[in-house]
Amino acid sequence: MACLVTRDLVIGYGDIVVVEGVSIEVEKGCLVAVVGPNGSGKSTLLKGIMGLARRFSGHIYYQDQDITLLPPHTITRLGIGYVPQVNNIYGPLTVRENLLLGAYFRRDKAGTEKDLNEIFNIFPELARRRDARAETLSGGERQLLAIGRALMGRPQVLLLDEPLAFLAPKTALLILEKLREIRERGLGILLVEQNTFLALENADYGYVLNQGRCVMEGKGQELLSDPSLRERFLGLPKEVR
């Protein structure tokens, strides 16, 4: 059953439309990837879902509740976590302090501490540096911290905007390994990513955006093997070798 659904969503900034009529679904325990060329509206789609971009028309549903008109802080409290591509940690604060910020609206102190320890179990890389200032972390560690902070809000759906950008291949694979582990815990994940190969190889389902519209959708591996898609929209060879 889908826990996050958009229907004919039109999103933009000011009077400019960027995303036109996009419909997607994210089920619990599934990783859904949104890929496509630069400027195709991928990041804007996430911002629209979170209430950070203008929603011209269409609907957004979370667990059958229409959240189209809700503000970002309410959407977060309902159970949708969001990890933006940049400015996603607070450099002067420690790793532990950053994680606790993700639980700012929670009042269950015991539960918060329990979840903090669980985050350190999932991300031992962060546990080792829990008292270090976030600005001293590597690029990969910063992304892990941003993901961990979002998880501290106990979301049911996690939205990630290009978490693999500018990372070394080994680090990108580590991030994907962690996302698979999070998915196995029952969370729905909506991943916007420029690295088409890695995103679709790890996705249960994928959507391809081009010029603000969804031009194709299907299982991740099926999309990767589609000749026309590979050449026209992804800039990849027609044949998989």
Automatic annotation (TrEMBL):
Entry keyword Cytoplasm: no
Molecular function terms from GO: ATP binding; ATP hydrolysis activity; branched-chain amino acid transmembrane transporter activity
Alphabetical UniProt keywords: Amino-acid transport, ATP-binding, Nucleotide-binding, Transport
Ranges of residues in domain ABC transporter: 4-236
Signal peptide bounds: none
Gene Ontology biological-process entries: L-amino acid transport
InterPro entries, A to Z: AAA+_ATPase, ABC_transporter-like_ATP-bd, ABC_transporter-like_CS, BCAA_Transport_ATP-bd_LivF, P-loop_NTPase
CDD domains: ABC_TM1139_LivF_branched
Family recorded in the similarity comment: Belongs to the ABC transporter superfamily.
Protein name: ABC transporter ATP-binding protein
Organism annotation: Ammonifex thiophilus
